[in-house]
Structure formats: C-alpha cells, structure tokens
Amino acid sequence: MIVTIDGPAGAGKSSIARKVAQRLGFEFLDTGAMYRAVTLGAIRAQIDFDDVDAMVRYAKSVKLRWDGKRVFLNGDDVSDHIRTPTVTDAIRFVADLPEVRRQLSLLQRKIAAGRDIVTEGRDQGSEVFPDADCKIFLTASPQERARRRQQQLTEAGRPLPLEDILKAQDRRDAEDRSRPVGALRPAEDAAVIESDGMTSDQVVARALEIVEQARNRRPSSDGSPPFDVEQATSRQR
C-alpha cells in the first residue's frame, strides 16, 4: 500500500509522514531529502545548474541510501549538510528541471515497488504515484507555517525575523506552484488536512483515519484483515 503526503514548505510533512509510517509499520520515503542530496552533490561537484545535461547525468549516477533518519549520498552521511541554507537556497535549480524530476520520480517508484510505504513531497499523489491507495494533502496558513519554521530555526540556533521567513516562504510557494513538472497542488482525490490549531498528535490521528478509510475501500486479495486504526494509533513511536 502506498500512502502519499504532499503539501507546501513548513506544513510538517516530513515529521507527520514519519510518524504515520511508524504507527502503520510502513517504510518511509522522504523525497525532499532526495532533491536536497542531489543539490548538495551538484554543489560539491561544481556542476553549473544551467547545464541541464550535466545535471541529468549526475542525477542518474548518484547512489542514495536511507538508514533511519540518516541520508547517505554515494556512501557519505549528508543528513545534516542537506539542511543548510546553502542547499535550501539552491534546491529550486534542481527541482525545477523536468528531466531531473523525471529521473528522481522513476527512482521513487522503484523504491516503492512492492512495499508498504508512506512517501512525502510536493507531487507524490498528483504526479509520481497517481494510483496510490491513499493521498493526503497537508497544509496550514502561511503565517502558521512561517511561525513553525521560525521555531525550528530558533531551536537550531539560527533565529530569523518572522517577516523574513514569510517572505522567503511565499517566494518558494510561488516557485513550487509554477513548476512545469511536479507543481505543488493537491491531487483531485486527495484528502486535505488543514493543520492550523492542531497538535502533531491530532494531525497524525486524522491522517490515520484517512488511511483507515482508504484501506478499507481496497479489495483484499491476500485475505488480510481490515485495517484497525485503533491498533495503529496505540503503537509505540
């Protein structure tokens, strides 16, 4: 079963998707980390972002691996490096290239094939996995998302004024929505969660309810019992 969780920057997709995967006993795929890792690798290799052919060749050549929350690029643990402002500012040059998105989308499908997986990103339900069993679009107001981002940066020792974060976030939202391939938008059959005023646990609980509804709609070909959201919710994190 594939569960997609899409949404804009600052919506909390990664943390919610990871928790949902843990509760379900599914694997977790952080596609944003894939784009960040390729961006970091291109920066390290001094590849010109305008050289599309070189970028595509590089995207095809990289080896990405996950181990829990750690991300490895060609065997190197880059988990912390991919979250730096340098990578964040440059990721659009990679994410906006249709050829690179197609290459990484193929890799995402290969990773998910035959697995129970929760995958998060911008276009998982709308582009990468259009036939996914369950699609969720997680969002919040721009002000709420900026406030959450400010809290994260402050906790990381990099405080920024809220207005600066909101300005950068609005610019990124506009870029994400205008991409020729993989534009930010909810899939037509996605369930939308507006998370303003909700705690993380409340968002996870709502997502599990949506998964329960989707799974119970699926025809069971293997004789497995119906999905039990109560059991999933009670699992240890």
Q: Can you characterise this structure?
A:
The chain is an alpha/beta fold and 237 residues long. It contains ten helices and eight strands. A five-stranded parallel β-sheet has the order 2-6-1-7-8, sandwiched between helices. The two termini are 20 Å apart. The model has no long low-confidence stretch (mean pLDDT 89).
Q: First CA to last CA: what distance?
A: 20 Å
Whole-number mean pLDDT: 89
Overall strand count = 8
Helix/sheet category = alpha/beta
Q: What would you say about this model in short?
A:
The protein is of the alpha/beta class and 237 residues long. Helix content is 51%, strand content 14%. The chain has 10 helices and 8 strands.
Keywords summarizing the entry:
237 residues, alpha/beta, 5-stranded parallel β-sheet
Topology overview:
Elements: E1 2-6, H1 13-24, E2 27-30, H2 31-44, H3 52-61, E3 64-67, E4 70-73, E5 76-77, H4 85-95, H5 98-112, E6 117-121, H6 124-128, E7 134-139, H7 142-155, H8 162-177, E8 191-194, H9 200-217, H10 229-233
